[in-house]
Structures are given as structure tokens and as C-alpha cells.
Amino acid sequence: WPATDRDVLVHVNIAQDETTRVVTVSLKGVDPVTDTLAPLVPSRKGRAGIERLTGFFRFTPLSETETAAVYEMHMELGGSLPATLANAQIGDTPYYTLLNLRKLATAPKYRNFRPF
């Protein structure tokens, strides 16, 4: 309340440039009608589907201990949603996404991981 729950199935592609070592994680929402992955989209009973989603994460190594992160996302939420609710999340969502990603990346199990 006051908005209907949203869902989306996302196709993720991860690539690394061997020269620059930049890692790009591309995100694209699966269209439940036209995409070949459409059979994987569950029933949306009681939920509004996110109509479009595209975006990426780009990670550029700066040193052995530092990485620059860029996060860009475009979503068309679909359904009826007051603009004030949608706008309230615009600043929080990228911040908390990157904050939680940082927590994951600095977890003890990744402490000695050296991908580059």
C-alpha cells in the first residue's frame, strides 16, 4: 500500500575488457510478451510488471584497493503509481544499491579475491 507490488525478470550480461580490466554488468528487463525468455516470467497476478528496464554497472579498477563504480538505470514502472512515490525512490535506490554492493564485495569470503 498505496502502490501495487512490482516485478521484473532481468537478463544480466557480465563482460570484462581484457586491456582496461573494466567490468560491465548490463541489465535488461525481459519483455513477457516478445522476449524468448518470456516463458520464464511467472504469473503477475496481484502485481504490476515493470514495463521497461535497462541499465548497467561499470567497475573500473583504480588501484589494488580501489574501484570506481558507475550505476545507471532506466525503468518504466508501469501500472498506476503516484509520481511522489516514484520520485521518493530516485535518490535512495542507487545509494542503497551501491552501499549493499560494497558490503557484499568487502565480505570476508572475498577478502583475498584478486580478479585483475
Write a compact overview of the structure shown.
By secondary structure, the protein is of the alpha+beta class. The chain has one helix spanning 83-105, and strands at 6-7, 10-16, 23-29, 48-49, 52-61, 67-76.
How would you describe what is shown here?
- The chain has a four-stranded antiparallel beta sheet with strand order 2-3-5-6, with no helix packed on it.
- It has one helix and six strands.
- The longest helix has 23 residues, at about 85-105.
- The mean pLDDT is about 80.
- It is α+β, with helices and mostly antiparallel strands.
- The chain has one helix at about 85-105, and strands at about 5, 10-15, 25-30, 50, 50-60, 65-75.
How large is the count of helical segments?
1
What is Rg? 17 Å
How do the helices and strands follow one another from N- to C-terminus? EEEEEEH
Oligomer: single chain
Mean pLDDT: 80
Distance between the termini: 45 Å
Beta-strand content estimate: 25-35%
In order across it, which strands form the biggest sheet? 2-3-5-6
Beta strand count: 6
Strand count, sense and barrel status of the largest sheet are: 4 strands, antiparallel
